[in-house]
UniProtKB/TrEMBL annotation, chain A:
<feature type="transmembrane region" description="Helical">
    <location>
        <begin position="32"/>
        <end position="55"/>
    </location>
</feature>
<dbReference type="GO" id="GO:0055085">
    <property type="term" value="P:transmembrane transport"/>
</dbReference>
<dbReference type="GO" id="GO:0005886">
    <property type="term" value="C:plasma membrane"/>
</dbReference>
<feature type="transmembrane region" description="Helical">
    <location>
        <begin position="165"/>
        <end position="183"/>
    </location>
</feature>
<keyword id="KW-0472">Membrane</keyword>
<keyword id="KW-1133">Transmembrane helix</keyword>
<feature type="transmembrane region" description="Helical">
    <location>
        <begin position="260"/>
        <end position="282"/>
    </location>
</feature>
<keyword id="KW-0812">Transmembrane</keyword>
<comment type="similarity">
    <text>Belongs to the binding-protein-dependent transport system permease family. CysTW subfamily.</text>
</comment>
<feature type="transmembrane region" description="Helical">
    <location>
        <begin position="90"/>
        <end position="114"/>
    </location>
</feature>
<keyword id="KW-0813">Transport</keyword>
<dbReference type="InterPro" id="IPR000515">
    <property type="entry name" value="MetI-like"/>
</dbReference>
<feature type="transmembrane region" description="Helical">
    <location>
        <begin position="126"/>
        <end position="145"/>
    </location>
</feature>
<protein>
    <submittedName>
        <fullName>Binding-protein-dependent transport system inner membrane protein</fullName>
    </submittedName>
</protein>
<feature type="transmembrane region" description="Helical">
    <location>
        <begin position="204"/>
        <end position="226"/>
    </location>
</feature>
<keyword id="KW-1003">Cell membrane</keyword>
<dbReference type="InterPro" id="IPR035906">
    <property type="entry name" value="MetI-like_sf"/>
</dbReference>
Length: 292, 271
């Protein structure tokens, strides 16, 4: 009898603790769900559903009065997009701009991040400050600072001016993305490479670059995504038409919603392809990159 | 040996010259903008011919600019409040999460940052047209929150990852309810992070203009939108005056954030 109670008593804690821990994790994930619910609801209502509607409108028949015929299904908008030479040249120019700015932004960003990493004290604070200050300034001002009227030397208007202004817009993000990874890197590894006879540029290229590859990937993706969709710099500083300027005209002047929606969908598709390619190519050099 | 030393000196000089030139390129454009705000001419010119505060006086007499300023503050505060609420709760919830939900939430929150603002503007304009929210402050606040939330969310993820969760268990063992323990145990430990997150959200909203351009009307337009329209019409120094104010506000916000934490940490959070 005593033996039986003692065994049942000693057997008791196990199932109970199992139940308790299961209860705890259950209430844990329920609490997690409850806390994340507002965020998820927001993303669904303001991001997922609007894009579903955009997709739907891109398949609606364009209407003569501008907007679109509700409840119709048609591929006309996509046909218009794919058949238009103008649209393809606009997209071509946007991607050209995106690639040029991305390459420059990553190269210069890497150099500047390295300079911040290697400096110390007041110099380091000043360099960081020079990156954060433009970041906190509105895009309108950052673009307008490059207006020919403000540049005494007479910045060449046109594509070169647009590239410089757009670079000024994305470079701070590139520098910070690379720097935040670089700051966690061990300097001794670079020293070891130098002790073994590597020159300074070579030690940076072969030791530092692979280690900060996650930062480089973020820098490249952000620079690319924002330059491909550039609006302010090309509009203010050149006569060239980018995707953003063209689609704004479709939407606000022509009021052709289905075409604007279809072009946006095509653009998002092309951009996703390019961003996947950036991930794919750069990952081979650095490996192990996880989103967030 | 000497040639090696020589090469290293050249490298060092080139390296310093390189980053000093970049430093100048980052800061000078903004200084030029500030300098032109003190001119008295009708058109923007650099260097300004005569220094005066004419355009500052003009700013405080201009109802349009003051209204735009009010709109910017309303939208900024609204965005900061909403994004902070969503981001802090979401990141906090993530800490208890053992399902696969969290791995969906993080990319979902992040993706809007990578979508060109023109596409977001078009999409939300079509959406709000159907919902009848077009042109209201609410529509701009919701759009800006889409960009501000990821910043708050990732700042808070990094803050919560350093929080000692045993403190929360201790509070539970002492009988504190979930809300009580959050307010008394968690919040005091992460308040700097919450503050910095809210400031970042405010700044993001203050400077965003493409989405605002699509979603605002003449009564709800924010400062960057009005500055943009003005730039397209007249190149008078008013835009420089407004820019100077915006730069000063951002500097003030940055100073507050740095006092609460430190520059290096804030810089990392921005990326």
């Amino acid at each position: 009898m005593t033996e039986a109670t003692s065994t049942s008593a000693s057997a008791l804690p196990n199932p109970i603790s199992a139940v308790r821990s299961r209860l705890a994790t259950q209430s844990g994930s329920r609490r997690a769900l409850l806390l994340m619910a507002p965020l998820i609801a927001f993303e669904l209502l303001i991001f997922v559903i609007p894009f579903a509607i955009l997709l739907r409108i891109s398949f609606a028949a364009p209407s003569s009065d501008g907007v679109y015929h509700e409840g119709t299904w048609s591929l006309e908008a996509y046909q218009q997009v794919f058949a238009s030479d103008l649209i393809w040249s606009v997209l071509g120019y946007s991607f050209f701009l995106g690639v040029v700015v991305t390459v420059l932004s990553v190269a210069i960003g890497l150099f500047y991040a390295y300079a911040i990493w290697r400096s110390s004290g007041v110099v380091k604070s000043l360099l960081l400050f020079s990156v954060v200050l433009p970041l906190l300034t509105t895009l309108v001002i950052r673009t307008y600072a490059f207006d020919p009227l403000l540049v005494p030397a007479g910045l060449v208007p046109g594509t070169a001016g647009v590239v410089v202004a757009q670079l000024y817009i994305v470079l701070p993000y590139a520098v910070l993305a690379i720097y935040s990874v670089m700051a966690t890197t061990d300097w001794h590894v670079v020293e070891a490479a130098r002790d073994l006879g590597a020159s300074r540029p070579r030690s940076v290229l072969e030791v530092v670059v692979p280690q900060v590859m996650p930062g480089i990937i973020v820098a490249a993706v952000v620079s690319f995504a924002w330059s491909v969709g550039a609006y302010a710099a090309p509009e203010l500083l050149s006569n060239s038409i980018t995707f953003a300027i063209y689609v704004e005209g479709l939407m606000l002047s022509d009021m052709s919603y289905p075409t604007a929606a279809a072009l946006s969908v095509v653009m998002l598709g092309l951009m996703s392809g390019c961003i996947a390619a950036i991930f794919g190519v750069l990952n081979r050099f650095g490996g192990d990159f996880e989103l967030a | 040996m000497t040639s090696n030393l020589h090469r290293e000196t050249v490298e060092t000089v080139a390296f310093r010259a390189g980053y000093l030139a970049l430093f100048a390129l980052m800061v000078v454009p903004l200084l030029v903008v500030i300098a032109t705000s003190f001119s008295d001419g009708a058109r923007i010119a650099f260097p300004p011919e005569n220094l005066s505060l004419t355009w500052y006086v003009e700013f405080f007499d201009s109802i349009r600019w003051l209204e735009a300023f009010t709109s910017s503050i309303i939208v900024g505060v609204g965005t900061a409040a909403l994004a902070t609420l969503l981001g802090v709760l979401g990141a906090f919830g993530q800490e208890f999460d053992d399902s696969s939900l969290g791995s969906v939430v993080a990319p979902l929150v992040l993706i809007p940052l990578l979508i060109p603002p023109v596409i977001l503007g078009i999409t939300l304009l079509m959406y709000f047209n159907e919902g009848g929210l077009r042109g209201s402050y609410v529509s701009i606040i919701l759009a800006h929150t889409l960009w501000a939330t990821p910043l708050v969310y990732f700042v808070m993820r990094s803050v919560f990852s350093r929080f000692d969760w045993q403190q929360l268990d201790a509070a539970h063992d002492l009988g504190a309810g979930p809300v009580q323990s959050f307010v008394h145990v968690v919040l005091p430990n992460v308040k700097h992070g919450v503050f910095v997150g809210a400031l970042l959200a405010f700044i993001i909203s203050l400077q965003e203009f493409v989405m605002a351009l699509f979603l605002s009307t003449s009564t709800t337009q924010t400062i960057p939108v009005l500055a943009w329209t003005e730039l397209r019409q007249a190149m008078d120094p008013m835009v420089s005056v407004v820019s100077t104010f915006l730069i000063l506000i951002s500097l003030g916000a940055l100073a507050l954030a740095v006092i609460a934490t430190n520059l290096e940490w804030v810089s990392k959070q921005l990326s």
